[in-house]
């Protein structure tokens, strides 16, 4: 089933309305869909590098709006929708334990999930369920999703098709390194 969804998403990259498809995929990925928008975004940018930043902007806006849907699911319908979605992702057991610490961590879970391959939908639903400040959620989501999508767009825009394979194989490692550098920067500013 996942392979079919992935193939469907890749086929959308060549469609004349691919930007609308990207907006849709980025929106639903933030609350329920298992395939990240990168799978559609990367081939779209490779095909039209001059539109890289428009494509990243559409993915960012749509993802944050979809994140608000995930937040609403967590806040308003956790038992009916949120928990079953998290169970389907294999995160059901960890939810109750994580709830104890989630809001104490403030914006960090949203930032890290928005930048890394960790399922962003888990954090959007958890943010609503735990009552994380909506302002904190939105601002952090914008920073995280823009950081992720514009990083990919910038690399593809400037380095072209050869970077595609590198990104697809090492996106998780690259974003984890980016988070480590970001955290190191915050640490340096605070303690040095």
UniProtKB/TrEMBL annotation:
InterPro entries attached to this UniProt entry: DedA_domain, VTT_dom
Name of the protein: Cytochrome B
Pfam families linked to this entry: VTT_dom
Residue intervals of the VTT domain: 53-156
Organism: Pararhodobacter aggregans
Regions annotated as coiled coil: none
Transmembrane feature ranges: 52-78, 171-189
Keyword Membrane listed: yes
GO cellular component, one term: plasma membrane
Keywords of the record: Membrane, Transmembrane, Transmembrane helix
PANTHER family: ALKALINE PHOSPHATASE LIKE PROTEIN, DEDA FAMILY PROTEIN
